[in-house]
From TrEMBL:
Entry protein name: Uncharacterized protein
Natural source organism: Grifola frondosa
One Pfam entry name: Questin_oxidase
Source organism, top-level taxon: Eukaryota
Keyword terms: Oxidoreductase
Higher taxonomy: Eukaryota, Fungi, Dikarya, Basidiomycota, Agaricomycotina
PANTHER family: PROTEIN, PUTATIVE (AFU_ORTHOLOGUE AFUA_5G03330)-RELATED (PTHR35870)
Length: 210
C-alpha cells in the first residue's frame, strides 16, 4: 500500500513537471505556446509502468526502484532548465474542458441529458484526434494522462493543502486537483495539432527551459 502511494506521488510530480512547467514557460517558448518538452513528457509515460514492475519486486527492491525513479525525474527536471511550477496561475489560465477546433459542431436538443453541453466528456475528442496523429509518442502520453485521470481525476482542490503549508516553494498547491491531467492533455493536443480536425502537424519541444 505504501508503494502505491509513492507511485501516485510520482505520477502527480511528473505531470506537474511536464504540464504546469510547460505552461509556465509559454512566454519564453519560441512558439509562444505551451512548451511540450520531449524529455519531461517521457517522465510521465514511463511512470505509467511502475505498478506493473513493482508487482514482481520485493519490498526492498521496490524501495530502491521508486527512490531511483524519483531521483532521475528530479535530475531531468533540473537538467531541462528547472521550469517554474506556477500552479495557481496554471489553473486560472487553463480549462478542465478542452475542446477541439470548431466545437461545438451542433446544438443538442432539449431532451438530451446535457442540453447546454454538446461534449460533456473532454477526453473523447482528445483521444479521437490522438488515434490518427502520426506522432507515436503522443498516444503514449495521452494514454498515461487518461489513465491517471481515471484513477485520480476526482481528487478535489484542497487535497494537497498540507503539502502547500509544508512546502512554501510549491506555491498554489492548495488548488491542485484531478483536472490537472485533462488540462495537460488539452494543452498537448493544442501544441501537437488537432490533425483529425484539420490542423497541421506540429511537434515536441526540445529547446528546454533556459
Amino acid at each position: 500500500m505504501q508503494s502505491l502511494r509513492r507511485i501516485e506521488e510520482l505520477a502527480w510530480m511528473n505531470v506537474l513537471f511536464y504540464g504546469v512547467g510547460g505552461w509556465g514557460a509559454r512566454k519564453t517558448s519560441h512558439t509562444g505556446k505551451f512548451n511540450a518538452d520531449f524529455f519531461l513528457m517521457h517522465l510521465v509515460t514511463s511512470s505509467l509502468f511502475l505498478p506493473s514492475i513493482v508487482a514482481y519486486l520485493s519490498p526492498s527492491s521496490t524501495t530502491t526502484l521508486l527512490r531511483t525513479f524519483f531521483n532521475v525525474s528530479v535530475v531531468w527536471w533540473i537538467a531541462r532548465g528547472r521550469p517554474a511550477l506556477p500552479i495557481r496561475e496554471f489553473y486560472a489560465g487553463t480549462t478542465p474542458k478542452p475542446a477541439e477546433p470548431g466545437a461545438p459542431h451542433g446544438t443538442p436538443t432539449e431532451k438530451t441529458l446535457t442540453p447546454a453541453d454538446a461534449s460533456p466528456n473532454p477526453w473523447l475528442p482528445i483521444l479521437q484526434t490522438t488515434l490518427v496523429h502520426p506522432a507515436e509518442h503522443l498516444c503514449k502520453l495521452q494514454r498515461a494522462l487518461a489513465h491517471y485521470a481515471a484513477h485520480y481525476g476526482t481528487v478535489p482542490a484542497g487535497h494537497f493543502a498540507e503539502l502547500a503549508r509544508q512546502s512554501p516553494g510549491l506555491e498554489g498547491a492548495e488548488v491542485l486537483d484531478g483536472t490537472v491531467f485533462v488540462r495537460a492533455a488539452g494543452l498537448t493536443a493544442d501544441r501537437m495539432g488537432w490533425m483529425r480536425e484539420g490542423q497541421e502537424e506540429m511537434n515536441w519541444d526540445r529547446a528546454g527551459f533556459f
